[in-house]
Amino acid sequence: MTDATANAPARSLFTEDARTKKRNRAEARFRAYGLAAVIVGLLALVMLLVSILSNGMSAFRQTFLTIPVELTEARLDPQGNRDPAEMAAVTTFGYLPVLAQSYIDHVESLGIEHDLSPQAMAAMISGEAPAQLRSLVLEDPSLVGQTVTLRVLVSGRIDGFFKGRVTMASAERDANVTPEQLQLAQALAEVGVIETRFNWSFVTAPDASGQRPEAAGLGVAILGSFYMMLVVLVLSLPIGVAASIYLEEFAPKNRLTDLIEVNISNLAAVPSIVFGILGLAIFINFAGLPQSAPIVGGLVLTLMTLPTIIIATRASLRAVPPSIREAALGVGASKMQAVFHHVLPLAAPGILTGTIIGLAQALGETAPLLLIGMVAFVRDYPAAPPEGLFDPASALPVQVYQWTQRSDPAFVERASGAIIVLLVFLIVMNAIAVLLRRRFERRW
Amino acid sequence: MPLLWLFVIVLALGALGFVLGRQRAIASAGGDARQLHSLPNYYGSNVAILTVVPALMVLAVWLILQPMVIQARVTSLIPEAAIEQIGSRSLVMSDVRRVAEGLDTAVAAGALSEAETRGLSTDETDVRARLGEVGVALGGAVTPEVLAAALRYRALDHTADTLRSGLVIVLAALGLAYGYLRTRQEFRARNSVERAILALLMLASTLAILTTVGIVFSMLFETFNFFELYPWREFFFGLEWRPSFEGGSDLGLIPLLWGTLYISIIALLVSVPIGLFAAIYMAEYAGKRFRAVAKPLIEVLAGIPTIVYGLFALITVGPLLRDYFAQPLGLGTSSSSVMTAGVVMGIMLIPFVSSLSDDIINAVPQSLRDGSYGLGATQSETVRQVILPAALPGIVGAILLAASRAIGETMIVVLGAGAAAALSLNPFEAMTTVTVKIVGQLTGDTNFESPEALVAFALGLTLFVITLGLNVLALYIVRKYREQYE
After folding, report:
1. Per-residue pLDDT for B110 more than 60?
2. Euclidean distance between CA atoms A317 and A312, whole angstroms
3. Same domain, yes or no, for A308 and A275?
4. Which domains does chain B possess?
5. Whole-angstrom distance, CA of residue A342 vs CA of residue A351
6. Taking CB atoms and an 8 Å cutoff, what residues of chain A touch B297?
7. Start and end of every ABC transmembrane type-1 domain (chain B) (predicted)?
8. Can you tell me the ipTM of this complex?
């Protein structure tokens, strides 16, 4: 027994002294910091999703105007012999008065009071509507002379009014819309002529110009992204699996294989924009492939996805126990047969999961696509593959970027809506990957 | 012959070879497959590989070389005077190509006959108008030199196409015949097929090297061109970034690098404390159920595409920071700022830091913890004084990897940081980064002869070198640290 212990004041172990209290407080504080960090992280996720969802959900709904349109022969088919070739001479611009007049007449027949000029009335209808009417008439010339009931888009500002983006107060300051137009729209909505409903064409229609946010859709972008994913899948899966098999099963340990390994792990960390520069320099400037084509995007994304697939495939090949290989070799299989007949099928679920996750990454990638010309404004759907792979197209994430660059505030809603579509695709892909892993994962 | 057809023909020959080789092998063993050295399918595959692989390899090489050879032979047709008039050789050549492709389209559409095309001359016909009729838009009127070159280009291209198809088909047929004749009872078909497969596997794995080489060379080459047009000293040490497409631009790297570093530092200041504390909490404190829910949710942040973060910065974080911090403090009125981009990028990096640190903390042996608890340390004391020092090299590696991510990140800064290059300390001011300027200089119609476009390649190379350096350093540190406990 030392003196120190003997001289210490007698106290119970169950009462904390000042120093223990301090240490315990520090412990609690530290723990709280940790919890706070986790909560901040989760909060950031929630904020991100709420911000995108609250801005973007309205993109799936659109305001339509339903009116009877009298297709006057004098304007649409001056010759009167219903020849589509002749009727094509009447441009979209020629259909506008027909539509506007029908609209004005219909409002009058409903007995709604307003003091708008015919021009201001026509401006309430989307610039896309005459084009819609024109293609309808050209498809079926016999409609000319009849009266058809048509549902057309209203202009972006009127649509914004029903979604709460445009108010009477903001319309005062806006050159594109007047409060009187909004009052008329309100009156028409009360009688059901104008209504806001679910809008499929947001997902199917092509992009529209900066003045017609109400008509802009994701059709071309989704198709372009799909084509690119096709190219990525077709190229990166076989190449990635082949490379992994070589590195994991056959490669001798030498400088070359070391070099390859270092290369792969570095490629996985190269900034994506650098791959865009590679694509621009090699695939477009050197090989002469067309700009904005899904094939170029697919090739660039393939190079980016390969390291992901290789790393996943090697991990799942490694997880197959050596006893399987040895058993196969023992009954007389060659090394190649052992790998292809036994190891590869057992590793397949893991490889598939890795591939899907790689594809999901590639789907959301934007920066390299900006450099290879995917930012071009494309309104035509690409043809079916393989020719369609060389047609200009857009891509989902790039479409989002393009819409953020336009001045009309309605495009913020469109961009957020496009992100919702993108996220839905990603969630589906990741869910498939998780399911595959759950269903087929085997522990040895 | 269209490429697709050629491809299909070669594959069909390959399939034929498979069937023939298999039959011949079985026949050579008198109908008894057991007498063969290998399984019958290997004989078939052997013939198929000999048919398809050399033919397709020649096709690939041909496809790469054909445009280069033709270009070289056509260029000599264009007099120097015409080149000086238009500006550069490559611009003239792209005109030539466009006219040649336009003529092809015209012939395909039936607007011109093959013979008419050969007899075209600029004196008699307005080529631009004729091509315009079939929907081929040309920039300017076609000069006689360009038309002559285009006609020559077409002729060479057609000859080359015919030659290519002939050569490839002949090669495939030869391969088929050779393989077929080699097929005998005692032929070691399996070994031969396996060697071929091994070669293909090796080829696939060298693609990673090819990609790196491609990246380095594509950028080195253009960077070299850039430094011929613009002094390298002014690029690396210039304090001004003011590109103008009329020439006489200032293309200094420093302001871009400063913007990049400033944003990355803010991103790390956000992500490292949050990510590290989250990792510590998950590894040391959290119960199993909390961990099972919270860890995947935080990792969802890592799976969200960067364009989503970019939009988040643009429509939510930017206005928020402007209205509640920048304007009340009198620091600026711009919603895109270093702070906006930095904070959002920090959020993006949280899962990156936390999952890497989590792995590293878990790799610290339990014996160290037990030793510390045995001495009476509390949990937090153990973490701070035992686990963190032991895991430090790994955590530094993780932070370096996160920094390299932050420096190379593009979409968040394109949408959140602004486009004006500035050397300023105010975090609420819009600044720009290396990646933003790469996108800016290379998007849209660019002339690859001007320093304003070529600078993007020099920027890309700089970016590549910096991130590569950080990655190599980080991997080195992490690897070295792992060895300590294994």
Report:
1. yes
2. 9
3. yes
4. 3-187 (no CATH), 241-485 (1.10.3720.10)
5. 14
6. 42, 45
7. 257-474
8. 0.90
